[in-house]
Fold this protein.
Amino acid sequence: MLLRLAWRNLWRNPRRTLITAASVFFAVVLATFMSSVQEGVWDNMIDNLVSLQTGQLRLERANYREEQVLDNGFEAQDALLADLRSIDGITGVHPRLEGVVLASHTRYTTADNTTPDSTARDALAEAPAAARTPGDRTPAVRAEARTREDRTRIGLIQGLDAKALALRVDRLVAGRMPDLSADVDKTQPQGASPEGQLDAAQARGARRTGQALLGKELAEYLRADLGDTVVLLGQGYRGAIAAQLVVVLGLVDLGNPELNRATIYLPLADAQRLFAASGLWTGVVLEPEPYSNLDALSAEVRRVASAYAPLDQLEADAALWASPTWADMLPEIQQAREADEGGSILVLIILYLLIGFGILGTVLMMTLERRYEFGVLVAVGMRRSRLAAMVLLEGLSVSLIGAVVGLAASIPLIHYMAANPIPLEGSLAETYEQYGFDPVFAFSTAPDIFWRQFITVALIAMVVSAYPLYRIGKLEPVEAMRAG
Amino acid sequence: MNTAARSSAAAPSGHTHAELVLETVNLDRTFQNGPERIHAVSDVSFRVQRGEFTAIVGPSGSGKTTLLNLLGGLDSPSDGHVRILGTDLSALKASERVDFRLHNIGFVFQAYNLIPVLSARENVEFTMLLQGVDASERHRRSSELLEAVGLSSEAERRPTKLSGGQQQRVAVARALASKPAFVLADEPTANLDSTSASALLDIMARLNEREGTTFLFSTHDQRVIDRARRVVTLVDGRIDSDDRRDPDTAGTAKTNPA
């Protein structure tokens, strides 16, 4: 009956109850919306960085993070991959080979501003003048009028397995994905290409070259178009010289200017050839199920890896391995996120204060206007603790009604917004890009955004109800009935 | 909770005049109002036996309500003692006094004070619920009490749908639901028209005569005073007179303050 009594008391003044529930409702929707945007924007950025750069979780040699060089890689082991794949909560494993190179491209520009493709261009440059006929307006004439422009920039090589490459297909803004079937002419167009098709000369050259996807800003800087050949030069495994020609098969937009300026994706085998590191990985990126406990998975990954020894070690040992999470690998991002979230806590506190005062107002009115009635209830034998429980139930009920309805409205709204993020334009978009964010208001649908509101509102309601409980604890029936 | 008191309270009703239900000894209640010390109740000593139908009368400010609060354990005396079924209320802690009231004292208030969100039946059942009486027994007893006060047909109505007289009858039923040792009624007819007041008094007199329920009223309503078999008159917080009447003459006799 206590519950029934509390519930009915709530509807003694329906307007007040509804107003209070509505204030909780709006606060919950606003708080959820705000948290979702904030986490969504960060998640989006981190997703970009994580999925395209570090991975959520990764296995590598213990010394690799300190000194990220090929010599701190380890040999490819299929059994290790199989064991990692069998871990509960891991949905994918992707070996990688990463390294740093200088990427260089030479651009020839003719007087009529046409740019022959690089392979044909090189052939033209070396063709003897006698071989050209006076009337021939194509290669020879244009060759005489051309100007040469060399551009070089540091490139971050990511040698990826087929699945990891395939995951990046939605990042492709021009060209096509590498073809990884062994005996196929890798540069032949495999279908419709946004930027046209490669010609036979390119195809001939490509047999000697690797295939690459370039970050769009890197390609822009190098003035490399689709089908152009880019020279990669660097240091390979154990001091070998890394030198390779790669054909630009596609351009990718990684949603992050820094990544766009440096990233070069190669098929894993091409990367191993480039660095003279056949059978070597620098890490294995692990795909966890969404919202997994990464720390627990990390420990499990290390445990599984402890049965294996890297190439230059005689015995297997867990200490030889590290399994950093993205937050370990990108600590500055994590810190920036925490700092940003710290700032927004102030706004959330204001929202929660609004909720708190809304509930307090209702509970206070409920307490003060029913003081006489409370006096009567205690007089006829109702213990103060029971009375307090009833009032607490009333306060909690009105709060939870608002919170439940607020969540019921938030969940579809946030999911809709997550599916349809708001694109930013103009200077705001530029600012976002400058700081490495995708210029969109992305929304997070992480479950904790929603249930956190429940807990917070329930806690607020409990804290706010402490005042009426205090009043009830001190209630003297005679005084209460006299005051009434 | 005093188990002896509780079992005694739950004893079958009937005229057992020899049983002492209530006793006050040199009861004193003073209030400090700035520098002034007000004696609301002074040196009040009297006894009430089971089955009495007593009116405490007196002019406004004579201390009736203060005395009733002391008798009901709602207030603590500055001096003296209130003993109900042998239990000294002063010896009980606040929470124990709440439990003692629940099991031993029924209250009827001037303003009815029913719980507005509960039906008449639920109001009657309320004190039984607090006592932990099971649902079927609650229902049986509430039906019995509502029938006794003539409100069986209104059992499921909420107080706002009942007249003042009907509400006060529900309040009487509620006061009796916990099988108290006695019922304290503070100006029970003050807000009622004469027909309703008369009907209410009939019910209480019938309960007193048939069930032996002990009633103690504070009142200045002549209709109540006329029906009482004992009239205790307070003047300035002191007992001015304590008249007992023959049961046969009660209802017609006038008070006779000493």
Notes: Helices of chain B lie at 3-9, 64-71, 94-104, 120-131, 135-148, 164-177, 194-211, 222-227.
